[in-house]
Fold these 2 entries.
Entry 1:
Amino acid sequence: MPGRLAPPIHARRTYFDPVPELGELREKQPVSRIRMPWGMDAWLVTRYDDVRAVLGDPDTFDVDASSVSMIGVMQPEGSAESDSSETPAERAQAEALTHAKIRRLLLPEFTPRRTRQLAFRVAAFVDEHLDKLAHAGHPADLIALFARPIPLLVICELVGVPKEDRTEFQRWNTVRLDTTSDPRTKAEATKRAHAHMSELVARHRKQPGNGVLGRLVAEHGHEFDDATLTGLVDLLLLAGYESTASMIGLGVLLLLQNPEQRALVCDDETADGAIEEILRYLTVGHTTMPRVARKNTVIGTTKIAAGDIVMCSLPGANRDPDFVEDPDRLDLTRGFNTHVSFGYGMHSCFGAPLARMQLRFAYRRLFERFPALRLAIPLADVEFQTESISYGILSLPVSW
Ligand code: HEM
């Protein structure tokens, strides 16, 4: 499309694979200079060991809040972070403290035990949407009818968004995450979603409901202002939705293309390991959030100056031959591996147990209910989502 910038090298894919140029970069120039679409220069780190070293050293490489806002993960207006009298160092320290506090409070909500308590609801959402798929008749769009609604309902249930509000949230978040919607429509949807979330926070302040938000307000409400709580709900709703939806959609397509390995996700003995390999192989997140170097340092042999922005390529790391043998081969028998699809270190994904559980139910129940599931269009006609922070599929017509 005229005037549209090509995605940067780390966000380019061919079907399930990062482009070969990314592998060449990892081999020849593992820490290289790139220009981001919004005009910023950054270092791109592509080797597994280097990515883990950066993500595992938050004293040197801190999340860069100003670049995060540029990629569209916005804080609501008036949040605590917009105090202009603070120096950047003071702001960084305040953000680190708030992050550590929020993470400490939220982590207990995402333990495998707490996640297992949600299993019954997740299974019910999956079955409900399999019924909808059956009623829709084929060909049906698996993304609109299955991959997108399930993670949205799960995250709404977890956070405590009442049933009557969920359709509205789904509508707004779909517009916000749709890369083809125009900026004004997106801004309007964001404004409406934030207004609705503030109202939700106010309602929970009066009468804390079930779910994460209710518990947070009841037990720690006095420690956070409304803007911070609204930002937190927004972060959970956005972070918990898109990447899980991408993994469901892309994962189903991958399993359709590799029928000889499909049984492994439907067997209790092998399912967990198979899902880890699907997570590694697909690596839907192109990068983690941008990091900023807090001091002069080196990555490998490359000198990094204080203030430089560093992007960690997650597909680069997960497809590094120094990490796993024959990394471009999908092998669902590979078993557990220490992939970085959920990040690494103090910002690693705390929704991972919840995401894994959704994938387990979604893949297995879909293929058990529709054993003859097949793609209703040629693979070459599948529309991939290439301009979002996570790789995915826009629509996936299937028959059975
Ligand atoms: C397959 C699905 C998912 C993938 C691939 C994924 C991936 C990631 C990655 C790579 C990060 C690290 C970001 C960084 O270091 O800069 C992250 C962080 C995060 N994820 Fe996920 N995620 C998924 C599902 C979820 C779910 C279901 C939730 C739900 C509640 C969630 C909530 C978060 C939050 C809140 C953070 C920020 C953690 C922090 O800054 O301490 N994610 N995720």
Note: The chain is about 50% helix and 10% strand.
Entry 2:
Amino acid sequence: MKVLVAGAGLGGLCLAHGLLRAGVDVRVLEREDGPHSRYQGFRIALNAHGLDALHACLPERLHALLAAVSGPMAGERRVVDQRLREVRRLGPADEGTATDRYVLRQLLLAGLADRVEFGRPVVGYTERADGTVEAHLGDGGSAVGDLLVGADGVGSAVRRRLLPRAEVVTLPGNAVLGRTPLTARFAALVPGFGTVVHGAAASMLLGRMEFRRPPRLAAAELAPDVRLPDTGSYLRWVVMPTEPLPAGPRPWEAVRTDLLARLDDWHPDLLDLVRQADVVNSAPLTARYAEPVPHWGGSRRVTLLGDAIHPMPPSGGQGANTALRDAALLARTLAAVQRGSAELPAAVEQYEQRMLEYGFVAVADSLRRLPDVTPAR
Ligand SMILES: Cc1cc2nc3c(=O)[nH]c(=O)nc-3n(C[C@H](O)[C@H](O)[C@H](O)COP(=O)(O)OP(=O)(O)OC[C@H]3O[C@@H](n4cnc5c(N)ncnc54)[C@H](O)[C@@H]3O)c2cc1C
């Protein structure tokens, strides 16, 4: 059996590992020109679903490296005002472990050099009379397999063709996502799991991304053939102004100036956190989600996973975890087909029924957890 995966994101790469472990032939077709060509560095909270999926799919020799480039997500949650005076405590939380999306993606690329084809966007597909599927690529080429998996993220070209009526909604409001290198001064802002700052003009969520070991060094020691980026620990912050910032794409410097103007009476540590943000990895944040879709029926040679079918706002910390869960479930399902104990169309439909059920529960949960940005009094 040959599986084509559109998209070398977290879900697509996890699936590719799971399939290779099961002896299934796989090709991953990725739109971007290379593994480093895009802003992609933010903190990802990994819950039990995400970690179980990664452990099930990644080769065992990479498990210790995954643990080394993760960090804790536990401790007290505090609410403070804009001058950093504690307003209340929300009690301790333990949400598993955190890692960085870019670091995780590089780790997931390990061992897949001959499987991932960069610069090859999937722009459409044809289901052929012989039961195979042909993916059409933006470079004019094509690829043929027994199954095409759209793991091509929130703007999925595969979903647009398979489910043209599926609706993706952009949430109103505009948050700004930033990250600032973790120094002793900034670490004091988040003594536990996280800190929420409630000010009159904005709210700010703060969380730490503190790697147990620096990713590049950890890879050199634990899996010398794997190249991880030289990413240092950082503080991840999200500012949600009560009055929207100007819309449209703008340089970071302009966004930062607007933001600082809104926060002018905030504590100097918070202002410096914004001033010293990493320019490449800080930007306005657009949150989107999908309306639930019923199963599309029929037994096709095309399916979807992750943000391509159930995008959700980051508020629940579940998008990547659900994409990874989909990947592990689909890999398990296709492994049974490879062994000859299941038929491909029926197995894929079974995967879809389960994935749609828990996927849209996660979307609803994430929408319920959208933060309240009512101005502080
Ligand atoms: C600020 C922020 C914080 C987040 N925090 C968390 C968190 O804490 N926990 C969590 O679980 N989730 C979190 N998420 C969500 C998470 O990042 C996504 O849900 C997850 O990356 C989805 O994985 P995916 O593989 O489905 O898609 P992606 O990771 O988006 O990958 C899609 C891939 O497909 C490629 N592609 C696109 N179009 C095509 C095409 N036509 N052909 C070929 N390739 C294509 C893209 O270039 C990309 O490489 C967060 C998101 C944001 C924005």
Note: Residues 6-12, 29-32, 42, 44-45, 101, 121-122, 151-153, 155, 157, 177, 285, 306-308, 314, 317-321, 323 surround flavin-adenine dinucleotide (CB under 6 Å).
